[in-house]
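Teaching assistant here, posting this on the class forum so everyone can see the example we discussed in section. The complex has three components, and the goal was to see what a joint structure prediction looks like when all of them are supplied at once.
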Amino acid sequence: MTHTSSFDQKYRGVPGALAPRSRPFIQRHPSVMIFIACLALFTLVVTVLSEGFGVGLISTSFVKTLGKTLCLCLVALAMDVVWGYCGILSLGHMAFFGIGGYAIGMWLMYARTELIVVQSLAAAPLPPTPEEISQGIATQIFGVVGASEFPPIWAFAHSLPLQLAAVVLVPGLLALVFGWLAFRARVTGVYLSILTQAMTLALALYLFQNDSGLRGNNGLSGLQNLPGQADTPQSTISIWFFWAAALALGLGYIFCAWMVSGKFGSVIRAIRDDEARVRFLGYSVEAYKLTVFTVTAVIAGIAGALYYPQAGIINPAEIAPIASIYLAVWVAIGGRGRLYGAVIGAAFVSLLSTWFTGGQAPDINLGVYTIQWVNWWTVLLGLSFVVVTLLAPKGIGGLFDLIGKGRKS
Amino acid sequence: MSRLLIILWCLMCAVPAVAQDADAPIQQVMQAHAAEIAKASRRTIQPAIDALTDSGLPAAEIVLERWQAKEMWQDEATGLFVFAEEIDRDTIRIFDVSGPDIGEVSDEGYKQLKPNSGVRGLIAAALVKFQLTNDSPAIRRVALDAIARDPNESHLPALRDVIPAERSANLAAQMTRLERLLTISFGASEEEQIEAIAHFEGDLGVDVRGALNPLVKTTIKAAETVPEDPALVRALRPGTDALSKSDAYALLVADDLAPPLIPADAVRQTLIANIEDGKVAGVQVASLSTVQARNAAFATLVAEGRANPAATEQEIDDRLDAYQFFELYTGAPAVAIAAQSVLSGIETKVALNQTADLALDAISLASIYFLAAIGLAITFGVMGVINMAHGEFIMMGAYTGYVVQLFIPDHTLSILLAIPLAFMVTFAAGVAMERLVIRWLYHRPLETLLATFGVSIALQQLAKNIFGTQARPLTAPGWLDGSLVINDIVAISYIRIAILILALIFLAVFLIVMNRTRLGLEVRAVTQNPRMAASMGINPDRINMLTFGFGSGIAGIAGVAIGLYAKVTSEMGADYIVQSFMTVVVGGVGNIWGTLLGAAMVGTLQKVIEWLNPSNTLAAQTYMILFIILFIQFRPRGIIALKGRAAEA
Amino acid sequence: MKNPILGTTAALLMASALPALAQDCPIKVGVLHSLSGTMAISETTLKDTMEMLVEQQNEAGGVLGCQLKAVVVDPASDWPLFAEKARELLTVHEVDVIFGNWTSVSRKSVLPVIEELNGLLFYPVQYEGEESSKNVFYTGAAPNQQAIPATDYFLEELGVEKFALLGTDYVYPRTTNNILESYLKSKGIAAEDIFVNYTPFGHSDWSKIVADVVALGADGKKVGVISTINGDANVGFYKELAAAGISADDIPVVAFSVGEEELAGLDTSNLVGHLAAWNYFQSAESDANEAWVEAWKARMGEDRVTNDPMEAHYIGFNMWVNAATAAGTTDVDAVRDAMYGQEFPNLTGGTAVMLPNHHLSKPVLIGEIQDDGQFDIISQTSEVPGDAWTDYLPESAVLKSDWQELGCGMYNTSTSTCVQIKSNY
């Protein structure tokens, strides 16, 4: 592997890689400023045009789509840091994304059901005991899958703070343990990719089982209904989540930009380019990789926790290996190794995907055969992915370089 | 116009040339049971069948046979039964039950009798009487099958009558065995039964256990002392696996030896019943929102004598201690003991054979994984190229087989043709992919992985667009139907044996090609040092292309085999890809023996986990993957690790 | 309202969000079936069915003087996408009724949206019950219209004494098997005579499970298999059964998810005699069915088959048309009230009636597989009323659904209270 020859070339696109340290972070990274400004403007426009808080030009379902897209952009950012900057092609980050969704979903289901059960038990002659309430909730939640008792995994579901902690801790811990095992054994490159994919598959298969205690194939549903907000219309709730997703993306972007700049950023890029050399220079490569892997898993978990209340349902199919592959596809098409590339890739491809599979794209009649995009979009996506990998490794983000070059010359 | 003609024609047909003979004796017998026959149910039909068999009429056998074959119809107007053959959708040719052809009629006004398989089983059991003495061995065999399925007491004398006269040794053996089995169940005396039981010492047949097990049924009883009874199996103690405390107590309750327990919900019900002015026993109802508060209020009620206290653990235990529990044979003790001793002997043998069967299953699964992975062992193991579209090559092979079968209906010929064709198709696809994609990405393994993923996604959807998402049939030739049955426990289907053989052939081909041919030499040279190889006059481009094509082609043949035993869908490749990579990685990249070991390990492991947890196959797959992840921690380079410089390549 | 412009816009919006009036032409019929992804093969057929029904209705003069227009969206077998597309249908396309869904999980995904926006969904597939939504009409079979009668048939007609409940690991088999286990125990079958196994979707390695089933016969009891195995996995299962030489006379298999469509992927010559239970088979003999099959084949091709969920849509759609005509509007609440007691002839003969619990009363048919991939109907019951809450599970035995009188889908008859108005999802 010879990456060193292209060292300069690779670093040209990195904002402020060689800038002096004295100036404030934002000044050293004007692109972060631009991104935050764009995101704020976008949030404002969507809010003004929404049904919940504005003139209603954008339907609630589209607000939800946009809000979900922002979450996907956030997980794409995480993927870009771990893959584009650190060179670890993880095919497991959508698993962390899903775990975040499950963690928040458990509380949402529990709390919503608790309100219903308490209300219905209020009519009973004796006031309900906590055990009866818990039994009632369990029957409601698990009646669907033929059980009526809470599995131990739901022990903390009653508490929002604890489940919020789980959103961060469970993906973080899983990533820490898995990463520690994998990096310690010096599993690298494609082996690591396959191993992360196996992890994702194992998790998905585990969740598919009814015995996992997370309602098997059905997953957790009705997540869009916030507990205690039964009277708040979805048009309002969707905007709340849109704001939360925009905020999370903004903060995530700043955090990622901060992480990949400075010495830490230089080291992880160096690991990407030549791991052995960094190790010989005395850096603890494993510690760096583990940090990046874990931190990005946490970001993915947070993104998932914001995504699934908007989607309304989470189930094991969301964690299937193909989801993580699509994540890699977005980042590759957007342009690896630059944060805005990941965001653009995720937004562009997922929205395009929605458009093509949503039946809105006009079919093309070739006379002998009608191209229905519903069927052919995936073929196009797969092929364009091959083409991007072969011919435009910098992805869409690479176009910005061309513009920059044009201006300089 | 044409429709009018048809109607006219049908009307003409509806007037049969020969009238039905309503007075034929056989028709009379049937008419006596017309209601049961017309709406036949296993529970009510026996008298009608008996009436037919006992009638002594020669036509009875034919009536039963045709009734069983769903060839008997009923004239809805007259209620008379006729035999009929369907000519087309609306026309039938009817015959009188006593034989004569009546003619073609419209099926309007006639109702086909469709005895369900329960009724058909009873008819078959009744037909045995006629069939056992039939001249054709095939029909006698049908009769024996019917007895084996639905044995009844009348079969025993019938069998004993025909055994001496049976000419076919094969059938005679089968008859003797059946006669012994029936004697176990229906033997006239205990001695006869015991003698028959002894005959089956060590026999593994499911039917033997089926006959013996009902004889050793037991029941659990309670009494103050264990009686001296020949039927006594053993004494039991409550609180053991064989008898839980709650079951034991329930037994006492059932025998009126103990008062029933107060149900768990009693506290709540009692409290509700005693609510007075918003208070229970002086406690505000609103404060009864914990178990403790409720128990306290209940205790007050008990103290006031307004509720019965629940039995304590101690009371239950005391009561249980006062009685002895024991197990008794329900049937004749002597027979039961004889059956039990034979069964115990059989059970050890059964366990051994089950292990053997599990081992066969594991070998079979391993061979399937090996077959799926062997192409990968070439492209990934030898060349180091990650091909995520490998699964799709398997799929392409299977669809090739399907398409060939569309054109060539003969299954043997079509499979023989499909195998080379699948190889050619996937070889070509592999070469094309190598030329167009992979060639540009050597030394960029992560990019190769992604690009081949793209190809995989596109190919899968393409297959859906062409063939649809539903599974397509790929049918094995007739000579691969059925199983190699070693005994009633150990069996393996021929198709799995064929896959095993195919896997071994591939192993041999791989070894010969890699070690004994010019191509193999060049491949090894190119993988070890492409520059050196090139300077020796080998064209690395060409070698890479051919090797990749070879690996892909083998995947195509694997696809045909896998499609034969399972299904052909666009997603079948995706089912195998992760497992295949695991097999190669676990076994050790770059070594075919490693792949073989990897497949063996993965297959065995999965079967063992399935055996440990038979009700959930999904769990087996999950744990297997977890195990593999852990395994790789400890042997990152697989079971057979390449050493030295080759390992760094 | 601080901002007068915003206020007006909001008022306008609210006006436009009011239920579509009868004179709004054309009347829009939403079709929410996956056209891509794993469920496409099953669901595309239903999309075609709906398009055919809408076309036929338009030829017959439409509804309320309006032409009908089918609005087809593709939720791509992606469960969250079902919720999104349902919202899109109801708010963007403003459809008057939705016909859609196949899997239970997709229905659960759509439920909150339909209930929030007061939509109307016709769900055409056999399902596990234990649910009742004010906004959903269940035209497929509830467990007591398929699983229970089939089990009765096993017990009474085939004399099965030992049961293997084999299913794919998801909610329909899980719940159905739970109900059946409890039902069998109530019929005196001991717990050790019930063998339950779950396999993943698309499972292909069946040898061990088939061997386990054969081994069940060792205690001399007649063994029967009740299969809730879904989709592709059936191919491998039946192939293994055939290879093991198990005939329907030895160990009968009754399947709840295998219909004419599924058999198209199989060589059925080795499966003759195995059973399936549905409310409809293509081989049913009635004039209406002959016309229906003929129309379907004329439209889709000679080799296409009809199946049970298609009939469910046929009945559901015609009932909706009649209810809308009776109500004089397509307003959801008015149509719902008009739906109760709607009658429409089944394709298998007899009449389907819409009950206050949003289920149909339909006959239960049991068919034996024939070598041409069709079913020979050997048993047909009279109409069985669908039951939302099964009587065979203790938690749900006390529950009852009656939207007409009680206005509650989850009414606890022991405490005489409504547990909840929204459905549980």
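For the discussion questions: Confidence is low (pLDDT under 50) at residues 1-20 of chain A. Residues 43-320 of chain A form one domain. Think about how each of these relates to the inputs above.
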